[in-house]
């Protein structure tokens, strides 16, 4: 490890130096890279703004609907990862140049942990979003009024419990990343099949709604959920 760092943020733990590339001193970067660094700062700022807006939207929807909407959490996660995560990965490149060395090893474990947690969360949400929609289909009669809060909260909690340990296992090479990716791909395909089943059943129910003269036997929530399932399933097919 280098005895000193030009980076504005670093710490030492158990005689090992860790560098977090969140704040980099641009004066140590080559001149041709400084404009790129400025651009990525703007991208990061945009990512933070979108994150704030998505959080505000999430809170607004949750407050007005009295429900904890998992889809809004997914939007927030994508805003953080796709913009802020891209910026973070770029800074991993910048900090190597700033330190004047290309080190491959364990000096940036904390960043790897954060990165793995973030991406694993994204992968897992693909599966859990399907489970949330399937729960909406199975409990359509009262899902919007009673069940959405605890279903979504349970899925988010389970996702967190799975994501953090798996991120540690991947970082320390105790779990093959290819195996985990293959598992997620398999689960995603199962999710596609579940969506197709939801769509088929919802189309049948929608036809029943059209044929019934007394549609009040289907609650407003039930009718809305059927249409929502069909809409999401059609998007998934596209």
TrEMBL record:
UniProt key word Transcription: no
Protein name stated in the entry: G protein-coupled receptor
Family membership noted in the UniProt record: Belongs to the nematode receptor-like protein sre family.
A Pfam family per the record: Sre
Signal sequence region: none
Cross-referenced InterPro entries: 7TM_GPCR_serpentine_rcpt_Sre
Keyword presence, Transmembrane: yes
Domain of life: Eukaryota
Organism of derivation: Pristionchus entomophagus
Assigned keywords, A-Z: Membrane, Transmembrane, Transmembrane helix
């Amino acid at each position: 490890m280098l005895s000193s760092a030009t980076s504005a943020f670093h710490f030492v733990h158990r005689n090992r130096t860790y560098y977090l590339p969140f704040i980099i001193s641009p004066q140590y970067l080559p001149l041709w890279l400084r404009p790129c660094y400025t651009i990525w700062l703007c991208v990061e700022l945009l990512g933070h703004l979108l994150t704030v807006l998505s959080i505000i939207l999430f809170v607004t929807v949750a407050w007005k609907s009295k429900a904890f909407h998992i889809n809004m959490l997914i939007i927030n996660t994508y805003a953080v990862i796709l913009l802020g995560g891209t910026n973070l990965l770029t800074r991993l490149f910048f900090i190597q140049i700033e330190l004047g060395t290309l080190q491959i090893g364990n000096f940036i474990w904390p960043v790897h942990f954060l990165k793995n947690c973030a991406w694993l969360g994204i992968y897992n949400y693909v599966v859990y979003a399907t489970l949330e929609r399937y729960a909406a289909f199975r409990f359509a009669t009262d899902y919007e009024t009673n069940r959405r809060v605890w279903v979504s909260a349970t899925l988010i909690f389970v996702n967190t419990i799975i994501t953090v340990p798996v991120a540690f296992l991947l970082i320390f090479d105790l779990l093959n990343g290819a195996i985990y990716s293959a598992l997620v791909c398999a689960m995603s395909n199962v999710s596609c099949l579940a969506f197709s089943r939801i769509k088929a059943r919802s189309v049948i129910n929608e036809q029943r709604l059209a044929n019934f003269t007394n549609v009040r036997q289907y609650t407003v929530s039930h009718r809305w959920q059927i249409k929502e399932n069909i809409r999401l399933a059609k998007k998934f097919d596209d």
